[in-house]
Amino acid sequence: MKILEQYILRRVVLMFLTALLPVLAIIWTTQVLQRINLVTDSGQSVGSFMVLATMILPTIVATVLPFALVIGITHTLTTMNNDSELAVIDAAGAPRSIIQRPLILLAAGLSIFSFVMMGFVEPAMRVNVRTMIATAYADLLSSVIEEKTFRQIEPGLYVQISERQSGRTMKGLLVADSRDPASELIYYAREGAVDESGKSLVMQDGEVQRKAPSGDVTVIRFDRYAFDLSDLSEERGQARFSAKDRDLFYLMDPDPLDERYIAKPNDFSAELHRRISASFFPLVFALISLMMCGDARSHREARLHPMASALLMALTLFWASNYMTSLAEASTALVPLLYLVPLACGAAAAFMLVTNRSPKLPKAISSLIQTAVTLTQKRLGAGTGGAA
Question: Do residues 168 and 190 make contact, with C-beta atoms less than 8 angstroms apart?
């Protein structure tokens, strides 16, 4: 690689990381805060929460990465154009490929990286996250670990304890069960404990109040009562995986007995092709960025900022891809559209680069922008002159 190519690549990579890391940190923080209830509700340690937060990070890298590449390329090349570096490169007789080649190679490498992340790393992390959350909420004792606070175990079932002692013993239990519309049950007990298997809550020295739909209330005292948790523990401890949680090999050959696959088979096909097509985004976005600002241009030319134009096109392409994915989930006949959108955009940008053509605004819009710029300059000039 030539010295000039290394210089351009180094600047783009530096700007790419400068854009990627802060945005990644912001999105990662918002995703982590959505899981903060793992600590507040289930009583997990801070260490477990940090492990969970670490596993969330790879699930968002592939989404942010292509946009950070757009910012890195457009900012670097726009700065070089403003500093007349691109004009000097053209005047020296260097081909445009000297600018394009290192950036396309970088984008191709990031596309391979995105493919690996979306195909294997991201689903593996999703599975680990879901399994960890399901395991944390499986134990009723963990779910009500905070004293003197009502906790919703599931819709219609609430538990409160006054004091948690050593082991699995609890004092002052209150269980409100309204899951069955035919009756509402409220259990009071002086003490109780969840057995080691988590299948039952054994309450001692208490009473149960049963309220019928007619309003009649029946009170029964008991010395010892076992509240069945078997179905609840199995349901809460079992992680359910959707198409987004499966790796590429599974999506290519799903388990025919998978409940999610039986219910929505098109989701697995659409997710498979979405990941493959989305892995082209870094390369396509790089071609779009080079098309917008890969050549020397005059500062007087009326146009939107290259970064704004490139990001607008990238966001439009990203939105269109997601929309095509939703269509493919409804009908597998529309799966080719997932590839058509990014490849058509990439081919159009590559054609513009090969033929040394530059995108231009329509004459009407260009004239309007130029008129607005001229009027603004005149007013600023007049204001400056008056102040002087």
Answer: no
| Contacts for 381 with CB less than 8 Å, ≥ 6 apart | none
> Could you give the residue ranges of the DSSP H alpha helices within the chain?
3-33, 37-42, 46-56, 58-82, 85-91, 97-116, 122-138, 140-143, 230-236, 248-252, 259-263, 265-278, 281-293, 306-330, 336-354, 363-387
Q: Are 341 and 328 in contact (CB under 8 A)?
A: no
Counting every residue written for the chain, the total comes to 388
Parse the chain into domains and list their residue ranges: 3-137+240-381, 143-230
> Is 220 within 8 Å of 207 (Cβ atoms)?
yes
Distance CA 74, CA 281 (A): 16
**DSSP helix/strand/coil, 278:** helix
Sign of CA dihedral 285, 288, 294, 297: negative
CA–CA separation, 354 vs 374, rounded Å?
Answer: 34
Tokens coding 247: 């790796």
> One-letter amino acid identity for 187?
Y
Beta bridge partners of 171: 163, 191
Q: How many CB atoms lie within 10 A of CB 372?
A: 11
| Rama region for 356: left / alpha / beta (φ>0; ψ in -120 to 50; rest) | left
Overall pTM surpassing 0.85 (yes/no): no
CA distances from residue 250 to 120, 187, 242 in whole angstroms, order as listed: 10, 46, 11
Q: Which residues contact 342 (CB under 8 A, 6 or more apart)?
A: 277, 278, 280, 281, 284, 317, 321
Percentage above 70 pLDDT, the chain: 82
pLDDT tens digits, one per residue of 160-174: 888 877 767 788 888
**Are 240 and 130 contacting, i.e. CB atoms less than 8 angstroms apart?**
yes
- Check whether 132 has a pLDDT greater than 60: yes
